[in-house]
Specification:
The chain is an all-alpha fold. It contains 16 helices and three strands. The longest helix is centred in the first third of the chain and has 42 residues, at about 1-45.
Amino acid sequence: MTTTRFAFKWKYLILVLLFLGWSVGNLDRFAISYAVLGITEDLGLNASSTGIILSSFFAGYALMQLPGGWLADKFGYRKVIITSIILWSIFTILTGIAWSLTSLILVRFLFGLSEGSFFPSASKAITNWFPTNERSRAMSIMLTSASVMGVVTPIAATQVMANNGWRSLFYIVGAIGLGFAVLFIFFLKEKIKQETKPVPVVKQGAVKTAVKGAPLRSILKSAFVWKLFIGYFSIYVVSWGLNSWMPTYMMNVRDLDLASIGYLSAIPAFVGIFAMVISGIVLDKLPRGRELQVAAISAILIAVLLYLMETASSTGMFIAYQCLIIVFQSFVIILIASAALKHLPEESAATANGFINTGAQLAGFLAPTMIGFMVQASGGSYSSAFFLMMAFACVSAVSLMLIFRSNKTSNVAMKEGIVNE
Protein backbone atom coordinates (compact mmCIF):
# COMPACT_ATOMS: atom_id res chain seq x y z
CA MET A 1 0.00 0.00 0.00
CA THR A 2 2.86 2.36 0.83
CA THR A 3 4.46 1.72 -2.55
CA THR A 4 1.16 2.40 -4.32
CA ARG A 5 0.67 5.71 -2.52
CA PHE A 6 4.28 6.65 -3.29
CA ALA A 7 3.80 5.96 -7.00
CA PHE A 8 0.49 7.83 -6.99
CA LYS A 9 2.08 10.96 -5.57
CA TRP A 10 5.24 10.89 -7.64
CA LYS A 11 3.67 10.30 -11.04
CA TYR A 12 1.77 13.59 -10.78
CA LEU A 13 4.84 15.42 -9.54
CA ILE A 14 6.75 14.02 -12.53
CA LEU A 15 3.96 15.26 -14.83
CA VAL A 16 4.13 18.74 -13.26
CA LEU A 17 7.89 18.81 -13.89
CA LEU A 18 7.45 17.72 -17.50
CA PHE A 19 4.79 20.42 -17.93
CA LEU A 20 7.13 23.10 -16.53
CA GLY A 21 10.08 21.92 -18.63
CA TRP A 22 8.07 21.88 -21.82
CA SER A 23 6.65 25.30 -20.90
CA VAL A 24 10.04 26.99 -20.75
CA GLY A 25 11.12 25.21 -23.94
CA ASN A 26 8.06 26.50 -25.77
CA LEU A 27 8.51 29.96 -24.27
CA ASP A 28 11.75 30.41 -26.17
CA ARG A 29 10.50 28.62 -29.27
CA PHE A 30 7.48 30.94 -29.55
CA ALA A 31 9.40 34.06 -28.48
CA ILE A 32 11.57 33.99 -31.61
CA SER A 33 8.46 34.50 -33.79
CA TYR A 34 7.90 37.86 -32.08
CA ALA A 35 11.55 38.74 -31.51
CA VAL A 36 12.16 38.32 -35.24
CA LEU A 37 10.16 41.52 -35.81
CA GLY A 38 12.95 43.39 -34.01
CA ILE A 39 15.75 41.15 -35.29
CA THR A 40 14.89 41.75 -38.94
CA GLU A 41 14.93 45.50 -38.35
CA ASP A 42 18.27 45.42 -36.49
CA LEU A 43 20.01 43.13 -38.99
CA GLY A 44 18.20 44.33 -42.14
CA LEU A 45 16.88 40.90 -43.17
CA ASN A 46 14.44 39.95 -45.94
CA ALA A 47 11.64 37.34 -45.77
CA SER A 48 13.90 34.48 -46.90
CA SER A 49 16.51 35.22 -44.23
CA THR A 50 13.79 35.49 -41.61
CA GLY A 51 12.48 32.08 -42.64
CA ILE A 52 15.95 30.57 -42.28
CA ILE A 53 16.29 31.97 -38.74
CA LEU A 54 12.92 30.52 -37.78
CA SER A 55 13.86 27.17 -39.32
CA SER A 56 17.41 26.82 -37.97
CA PHE A 57 16.17 25.73 -34.53
CA PHE A 58 14.18 22.89 -36.06
CA ALA A 59 17.15 21.60 -38.06
CA GLY A 60 19.04 20.90 -34.82
CA TYR A 61 15.89 19.78 -33.00
CA ALA A 62 14.96 17.24 -35.68
CA LEU A 63 18.49 15.83 -35.82
CA MET A 64 18.43 15.14 -32.06
CA GLN A 65 15.08 13.33 -31.88
CA LEU A 66 16.35 9.81 -32.57
CA PRO A 67 19.66 10.17 -30.68
CA GLY A 68 17.78 11.77 -27.78
CA GLY A 69 15.28 8.90 -27.63
CA TRP A 70 18.07 6.33 -27.86
CA LEU A 71 19.99 8.05 -25.04
CA ALA A 72 16.86 8.01 -22.84
CA ASP A 73 16.25 4.30 -23.56
CA LYS A 74 19.94 3.52 -22.94
CA PHE A 75 20.88 5.70 -19.96
CA GLY A 76 17.54 6.78 -18.49
CA TYR A 77 15.42 9.84 -19.14
CA ARG A 78 16.43 11.74 -15.98
CA LYS A 79 20.01 12.44 -17.05
CA VAL A 80 18.97 13.32 -20.60
CA ILE A 81 16.20 15.74 -19.56
CA ILE A 82 18.36 17.64 -17.04
CA THR A 83 21.26 17.97 -19.49
CA SER A 84 18.87 19.13 -22.20
CA ILE A 85 17.35 21.92 -20.07
CA ILE A 86 20.74 23.24 -18.94
CA LEU A 87 22.17 23.33 -22.46
CA TRP A 88 19.15 24.89 -24.15
CA SER A 89 18.98 27.60 -21.47
CA ILE A 90 22.61 28.53 -22.17
CA PHE A 91 21.94 28.80 -25.90
CA THR A 92 18.79 30.82 -25.22
CA ILE A 93 20.95 33.41 -23.46
CA LEU A 94 23.44 33.30 -26.34
CA THR A 95 20.58 34.09 -28.76
CA GLY A 96 20.42 37.54 -27.17
CA ILE A 97 24.16 38.00 -27.79
CA ALA A 98 24.05 37.10 -31.52
CA TRP A 99 25.47 39.91 -33.68
CA SER A 100 24.86 38.72 -37.25
CA LEU A 101 22.66 36.48 -39.36
CA THR A 102 25.29 33.71 -39.35
CA SER A 103 25.82 33.78 -35.59
CA LEU A 104 22.08 33.79 -34.97
CA ILE A 105 21.51 30.80 -37.26
CA LEU A 106 24.34 28.87 -35.55
CA VAL A 107 23.09 29.61 -32.02
CA ARG A 108 19.51 28.70 -32.91
CA PHE A 109 20.70 25.44 -34.49
CA LEU A 110 22.65 24.52 -31.34
CA PHE A 111 19.66 25.51 -29.21
CA GLY A 112 17.50 23.10 -31.21
CA LEU A 113 20.11 20.37 -30.85
CA SER A 114 20.10 20.89 -27.07
CA GLU A 115 16.31 20.80 -26.73
CA GLY A 116 15.80 17.92 -29.15
CA SER A 117 16.15 15.13 -26.59
CA PHE A 118 13.51 16.52 -24.19
CA PHE A 119 10.34 15.30 -25.93
CA PRO A 120 11.37 11.65 -26.51
CA SER A 121 12.79 11.49 -22.97
CA ALA A 122 9.60 12.99 -21.53
CA SER A 123 7.58 10.44 -23.52
CA LYS A 124 9.54 7.68 -21.85
CA ALA A 125 8.88 9.27 -18.45
CA ILE A 126 5.13 9.20 -19.14
CA THR A 127 5.34 5.55 -20.22
CA ASN A 128 7.40 4.80 -17.11
CA TRP A 129 4.95 6.34 -14.62
CA PHE A 130 1.48 6.10 -16.20
CA PRO A 131 -0.64 3.06 -17.18
CA THR A 132 -1.72 2.70 -20.81
CA ASN A 133 -5.24 4.06 -20.29
CA GLU A 134 -3.89 7.33 -18.81
CA ARG A 135 -1.13 8.12 -21.29
CA SER A 136 -3.15 10.24 -23.73
CA ARG A 137 -4.30 12.41 -20.83
CA ALA A 138 -0.78 12.65 -19.41
CA MET A 139 0.63 13.54 -22.82
CA SER A 140 -2.14 16.10 -23.41
CA ILE A 141 -1.39 17.79 -20.07
CA MET A 142 2.32 18.04 -20.89
CA LEU A 143 1.59 19.36 -24.38
CA THR A 144 -0.96 21.83 -22.99
CA SER A 145 2.07 23.79 -21.82
CA ALA A 146 2.53 24.85 -25.44
CA SER A 147 -0.95 26.39 -25.40
CA VAL A 148 -0.29 28.07 -22.06
CA MET A 149 2.91 29.55 -23.45
CA GLY A 150 0.97 30.50 -26.56
CA VAL A 151 -1.09 32.76 -24.30
CA VAL A 152 1.79 34.05 -22.17
CA THR A 153 4.44 34.51 -24.86
CA PRO A 154 2.71 36.98 -27.22
CA ILE A 155 1.80 39.33 -24.38
CA ALA A 156 5.03 38.96 -22.39
CA ALA A 157 7.33 39.00 -25.42
CA THR A 158 5.81 42.09 -27.02
CA GLN A 159 5.84 43.96 -23.70
CA VAL A 160 9.48 43.08 -22.94
CA MET A 161 10.51 43.98 -26.49
CA ALA A 162 8.65 47.30 -26.35
CA ASN A 163 10.40 48.27 -23.11
CA ASN A 164 13.82 46.61 -23.31
CA GLY A 165 14.38 45.29 -26.84
CA TRP A 166 14.50 41.75 -28.20
CA ARG A 167 17.86 40.78 -26.66
CA SER A 168 16.60 41.16 -23.09
CA LEU A 169 13.80 38.75 -23.89
CA PHE A 170 16.25 35.88 -24.38
CA TYR A 171 18.34 36.75 -21.31
CA ILE A 172 15.21 36.47 -19.17
CA VAL A 173 13.97 33.24 -20.74
CA GLY A 174 17.41 31.62 -20.43
CA ALA A 175 17.62 32.51 -16.74
CA ILE A 176 14.17 30.99 -16.15
CA GLY A 177 15.32 27.77 -17.83
CA LEU A 178 18.40 27.46 -15.59
CA GLY A 179 16.15 27.96 -12.56
CA PHE A 180 13.89 25.10 -13.67
CA ALA A 181 16.93 22.87 -14.20
CA VAL A 182 17.61 23.06 -10.44
CA LEU A 183 14.07 21.78 -9.74
CA PHE A 184 14.62 18.83 -12.05
CA ILE A 185 17.92 17.92 -10.37
CA PHE A 186 16.20 17.60 -6.99
CA PHE A 187 12.78 16.19 -7.91
CA LEU A 188 12.87 14.26 -11.21
CA LYS A 189 12.87 10.51 -10.43
CA GLU A 190 12.75 7.31 -12.44
CA LYS A 191 10.32 4.58 -11.44
CA ILE A 192 12.07 1.23 -11.15
CA LYS A 193 10.03 -1.50 -12.81
CA GLN A 194 10.36 -5.26 -12.66
CA GLU A 195 11.71 -7.03 -15.70
CA THR A 196 8.98 -7.99 -18.15
CA LYS A 197 8.90 -10.64 -20.83
CA PRO A 198 9.87 -9.65 -24.39
CA VAL A 199 6.98 -8.08 -26.30
CA PRO A 200 5.70 -10.01 -29.35
CA VAL A 201 5.99 -8.29 -32.71
CA VAL A 202 3.62 -9.07 -35.56
CA LYS A 203 5.18 -9.54 -38.96
CA GLN A 204 3.26 -10.83 -41.97
CA GLY A 205 0.94 -12.92 -39.86
CA ALA A 206 3.65 -14.51 -37.71
CA VAL A 207 4.55 -13.56 -34.15
CA LYS A 208 8.21 -12.79 -33.49
CA THR A 209 10.02 -11.58 -30.40
CA ALA A 210 10.98 -7.90 -30.21
CA VAL A 211 14.73 -7.33 -29.99
CA LYS A 212 15.05 -5.38 -26.77
CA GLY A 213 18.56 -4.17 -27.49
CA ALA A 214 17.77 -2.78 -30.94
CA PRO A 215 14.29 -1.20 -30.98
CA LEU A 216 15.22 1.24 -33.76
CA ARG A 217 15.48 -1.55 -36.34
CA SER A 218 11.97 -2.75 -35.54
CA ILE A 219 10.62 0.80 -35.47
CA LEU A 220 12.04 1.70 -38.89
CA LYS A 221 10.38 -1.38 -40.39
CA SER A 222 6.98 -0.52 -38.93
CA ALA A 223 4.36 0.77 -41.39
CA PHE A 224 2.31 1.84 -38.36
CA VAL A 225 5.13 4.11 -37.15
CA TRP A 226 5.81 5.53 -40.61
CA LYS A 227 2.16 6.51 -41.04
CA LEU A 228 2.29 8.29 -37.68
CA PHE A 229 5.50 10.00 -38.82
CA ILE A 230 3.85 11.27 -42.03
CA GLY A 231 0.72 12.37 -40.19
CA TYR A 232 2.75 14.24 -37.56
CA PHE A 233 4.97 15.90 -40.17
CA SER A 234 1.94 17.05 -42.15
CA ILE A 235 -0.10 18.46 -39.27
CA TYR A 236 2.96 20.29 -37.95
CA VAL A 237 3.50 21.99 -41.30
CA VAL A 238 0.20 23.65 -40.46
CA SER A 239 1.08 24.25 -36.80
CA TRP A 240 4.53 25.76 -37.32
CA GLY A 241 3.46 27.57 -40.45
CA LEU A 242 0.84 29.42 -38.42
CA ASN A 243 2.99 29.87 -35.29
CA SER A 244 6.05 31.21 -37.06
CA TRP A 245 4.45 33.53 -39.63
CA MET A 246 1.21 34.77 -38.09
CA PRO A 247 2.82 37.74 -36.25
CA THR A 248 4.48 38.91 -39.49
CA TYR A 249 1.30 38.23 -41.50
CA MET A 250 -0.85 40.19 -39.05
CA MET A 251 1.51 43.16 -39.18
CA ASN A 252 2.04 43.21 -42.96
CA VAL A 253 -1.39 42.09 -44.24
CA ARG A 254 -3.84 42.92 -41.44
CA ASP A 255 -2.02 46.20 -40.56
CA LEU A 256 -1.96 45.55 -36.80
CA ASP A 257 0.48 47.09 -34.34
CA LEU A 258 2.79 45.10 -32.05
CA ALA A 259 0.57 45.32 -28.95
CA SER A 260 -2.56 44.24 -30.87
CA ILE A 261 -0.68 41.31 -32.38
CA GLY A 262 0.36 40.18 -28.92
CA TYR A 263 -3.15 40.19 -27.45
CA LEU A 264 -4.89 38.74 -30.51
CA SER A 265 -2.33 35.93 -30.84
CA ALA A 266 -3.04 34.92 -27.25
CA ILE A 267 -6.72 34.17 -27.98
CA PRO A 268 -6.24 30.97 -30.09
CA ALA A 269 -3.57 29.78 -27.65
CA PHE A 270 -5.99 30.25 -24.73
CA VAL A 271 -8.56 28.14 -26.55
CA GLY A 272 -5.81 25.57 -27.13
CA ILE A 273 -5.30 25.06 -23.38
CA PHE A 274 -8.79 23.57 -23.01
CA ALA A 275 -8.69 21.85 -26.41
CA MET A 276 -5.52 19.91 -25.51
CA VAL A 277 -6.86 18.66 -22.18
CA ILE A 278 -10.31 17.76 -23.56
CA SER A 279 -8.83 15.96 -26.58
CA GLY A 280 -6.66 13.79 -24.31
CA ILE A 281 -9.66 12.80 -22.17
CA VAL A 282 -11.87 12.08 -25.20
CA LEU A 283 -9.20 10.03 -27.00
CA ASP A 284 -8.60 7.87 -23.92
CA LYS A 285 -12.34 7.06 -23.74
CA LEU A 286 -12.94 6.29 -27.43
CA PRO A 287 -12.91 2.65 -28.62
CA ARG A 288 -9.59 1.57 -30.09
CA GLY A 289 -9.42 2.60 -33.73
CA ARG A 290 -12.28 5.10 -33.46
CA GLU A 291 -9.90 7.81 -32.30
CA LEU A 292 -8.12 7.53 -35.65
CA GLN A 293 -11.35 8.39 -37.45
CA VAL A 294 -11.92 11.42 -35.20
CA ALA A 295 -8.37 12.67 -35.84
CA ALA A 296 -8.64 12.14 -39.61
CA ILE A 297 -11.92 14.06 -39.83
CA SER A 298 -10.36 16.81 -37.70
CA ALA A 299 -7.49 17.13 -40.19
CA ILE A 300 -9.94 17.54 -43.09
CA LEU A 301 -11.83 20.24 -41.19
CA ILE A 302 -8.51 22.04 -40.58
CA ALA A 303 -7.97 22.27 -44.35
CA VAL A 304 -11.42 23.83 -44.79
CA LEU A 305 -10.86 26.29 -41.95
CA LEU A 306 -7.48 27.37 -43.36
CA TYR A 307 -9.25 28.44 -46.56
CA LEU A 308 -11.87 30.35 -44.55
CA MET A 309 -9.15 31.91 -42.41
CA GLU A 310 -7.20 33.22 -45.41
CA THR A 311 -10.33 34.66 -47.05
CA ALA A 312 -11.81 36.12 -43.83
CA SER A 313 -13.15 39.64 -44.36
CA SER A 314 -12.40 40.82 -40.83
CA THR A 315 -9.72 40.30 -38.21
CA GLY A 316 -12.34 38.97 -35.80
CA MET A 317 -13.38 36.18 -38.19
CA PHE A 318 -9.71 35.47 -38.95
CA ILE A 319 -9.02 34.83 -35.24
CA ALA A 320 -12.27 32.84 -34.85
CA TYR A 321 -11.25 30.43 -37.63
CA GLN A 322 -7.77 30.12 -36.14
CA CYS A 323 -9.35 29.16 -32.79
CA LEU A 324 -11.31 26.37 -34.47
CA ILE A 325 -8.15 25.16 -36.20
CA ILE A 326 -6.46 24.93 -32.80
CA VAL A 327 -9.32 22.80 -31.44
CA PHE A 328 -9.24 20.24 -34.27
CA GLN A 329 -5.46 20.32 -34.42
CA SER A 330 -5.34 19.25 -30.76
CA PHE A 331 -7.10 15.97 -31.54
CA VAL A 332 -4.65 15.14 -34.32
CA ILE A 333 -1.54 16.06 -32.31
CA ILE A 334 -2.55 14.23 -29.12
CA LEU A 335 -3.64 11.12 -31.03
CA ILE A 336 -0.30 10.82 -32.83
CA ALA A 337 1.85 11.81 -29.85
CA SER A 338 0.22 9.21 -27.58
CA ALA A 339 -0.31 6.40 -30.11
CA ALA A 340 3.25 5.12 -29.76
CA LEU A 341 3.00 5.22 -25.96
CA LYS A 342 -0.11 3.05 -26.06
CA HIS A 343 0.83 0.55 -28.74
CA LEU A 344 4.60 0.10 -28.49
CA PRO A 345 6.64 -1.62 -25.75
CA GLU A 346 8.10 0.62 -23.05
CA GLU A 347 11.72 -0.25 -23.85
CA SER A 348 11.32 1.32 -27.30
CA ALA A 349 8.83 4.10 -26.44
CA ALA A 350 11.37 6.94 -26.32
CA THR A 351 13.08 5.89 -29.55
CA ALA A 352 9.74 5.46 -31.34
CA ASN A 353 8.35 8.79 -30.24
CA GLY A 354 11.69 10.40 -31.00
CA PHE A 355 11.43 9.12 -34.57
CA ILE A 356 7.78 10.16 -34.93
CA ASN A 357 8.51 13.59 -33.44
CA THR A 358 11.34 13.99 -35.96
CA GLY A 359 8.55 14.40 -38.50
CA ALA A 360 7.09 17.31 -36.54
CA GLN A 361 10.47 19.00 -36.26
CA LEU A 362 11.32 18.51 -39.92
CA ALA A 363 8.05 20.32 -40.56
CA GLY A 364 9.21 23.06 -38.20
CA PHE A 365 12.43 23.33 -40.19
CA LEU A 366 10.84 23.27 -43.65
CA ALA A 367 7.56 25.16 -43.15
CA PRO A 368 8.93 28.61 -42.15
CA THR A 369 11.58 28.49 -44.89
CA MET A 370 9.12 27.35 -47.58
CA ILE A 371 6.61 30.01 -46.58
CA GLY A 372 9.33 32.67 -46.51
CA PHE A 373 10.40 31.86 -50.07
CA MET A 374 6.79 31.66 -51.25
CA VAL A 375 5.93 35.04 -49.76
CA GLN A 376 9.02 36.68 -51.24
CA ALA A 377 8.51 35.06 -54.66
CA SER A 378 4.87 36.21 -54.79
CA GLY A 379 5.67 39.79 -53.83
CA GLY A 380 4.28 39.58 -50.30
CA SER A 381 1.19 37.45 -50.94
CA TYR A 382 0.41 34.72 -48.40
CA SER A 383 -2.18 32.85 -50.51
CA SER A 384 0.31 30.20 -51.63
CA ALA A 385 1.36 29.66 -48.00
CA PHE A 386 -2.22 28.95 -46.94
CA PHE A 387 -2.66 26.58 -49.89
CA LEU A 388 0.49 24.71 -48.80
CA MET A 389 -0.87 24.25 -45.27
CA MET A 390 -4.25 23.11 -46.62
CA ALA A 391 -2.56 20.43 -48.74
CA PHE A 392 -0.58 19.06 -45.81
CA ALA A 393 -3.67 18.95 -43.57
CA CYS A 394 -5.22 16.64 -46.17
CA VAL A 395 -2.07 14.47 -46.26
CA SER A 396 -2.30 14.07 -42.47
CA ALA A 397 -5.93 12.96 -42.80
CA VAL A 398 -5.03 10.35 -45.43
CA SER A 399 -2.21 8.87 -43.33
CA LEU A 400 -4.52 8.49 -40.32
CA MET A 401 -7.27 6.89 -42.41
CA LEU A 402 -4.75 4.36 -43.75
CA ILE A 403 -3.93 3.35 -40.17
CA PHE A 404 -7.65 3.03 -39.45
CA ARG A 405 -8.15 0.74 -42.45
CA SER A 406 -5.22 -1.42 -41.38
CA ASN A 407 -6.65 -1.58 -37.88
CA LYS A 408 -10.03 -2.81 -39.17
CA THR A 409 -8.39 -5.70 -41.01
CA SER A 410 -5.82 -6.50 -38.31
CA ASN A 411 -6.77 -5.63 -34.75
CA VAL A 412 -3.89 -7.81 -33.57
CA ALA A 413 -1.44 -5.46 -35.26
CA MET A 414 -2.57 -2.44 -33.28
CA LYS A 415 -2.72 -4.50 -30.09
CA GLU A 416 0.81 -5.85 -30.33
CA GLY A 417 2.62 -2.58 -30.97
CA ILE A 418 5.40 -2.48 -33.54
CA VAL A 419 3.82 -3.69 -36.74
CA ASN A 420 5.14 -4.60 -40.14
CA GLU A 421 2.43 -4.55 -42.71
